[in-house]
Amino acid sequence: MILLLLGTSCTILAYTPVPTPFPVDYIPTIIALTDQAGQSPVSTPTVVAIPEDTKPPIPTSTPEGHNSTVGPSPTPLAFNPTATNSPIPSATSTTDLSATPTRRSTRTPTITPTPTLPFAAIQIAEPGPMSKVVSPLQIVANVHSMPSGSYHIEIWTEALHPGEEARLLYRQVQNLISNPVDWVFLEEEIEFELSRVSEFGQLRLSVLDQYDRLTFVNSVDLILLSMGPSEITPRDMRTEPIVIRQPTKNQLIQGGVLIVSGMAKPTQEFMLVELVAVDGSVVGYRQAFVTPAPDGSYVPYSVEVPYQVSSATWVYLRISESGTRIPGIEHLSSVEVLLSP
Question: Domain span at residue 331?
């Protein structure tokens, strides 16, 4: 009986596994490390118990170039089974679609507006340029008035073939009161007679101030007929043919030189610039050379006009253009300025 009990006890002891501080799967690794430790003297790391359900980290070998036999054994980092891995940053940036886009401020260039062209002081609405007109001539126009001044209506004629002398066919003078309205509306019928079947003609309107100085002139070329129907062309161009930008009205000018600039629609290569005093004397003049545009549009001009006055003098700065076929001024603009030595 005693032998039977001892045999049974030995059998139980032989097959009961001895508990170890390492998982069963990790024992071969421990044996291999122990065998390697016997070959090279390294410090024995402190053993840390690792749960069986957690895969143990693979131990790293000590670099061969640094074998330390003196001092305390290095302690490996303890494995924390509750630690969580940090999220790996994404290489793709995310965009909040609900965010309101913000426009970056940019430097906007300042645009200087171009000054508009002023209305003409004499606006001829009818007849239009190169209209074929049979008597009577119907005139529709607006004229800028001058206090105590006057306005003139003239019709000039010349033979269609250049070379013959031009003649004045009609003239009418109307005086203005001392305090007139700013604009005078004209609507008249003018009877005329021709010695030929047709002639080249020109309708010319002028405004003079109280000292009989020309201040504004505008004209339109016509074909005058002694018989047949009239053919009136439209005229929608009511801006000033000669625009004076500088100097401005009532500006004081000093130093003996007046700088004049502006825009014009010339038909010739020069315009006459004059400074006319109250008594009609010219205290300064100069020709402004321009090149007419092929399409008849406005071109800039600029000229320096020397003058001589002994005291402060009010003058009219006048810029005019004369005709090539019919003599006299076809277009004239003016502005009153004060000249000082």
Answer: 241-341
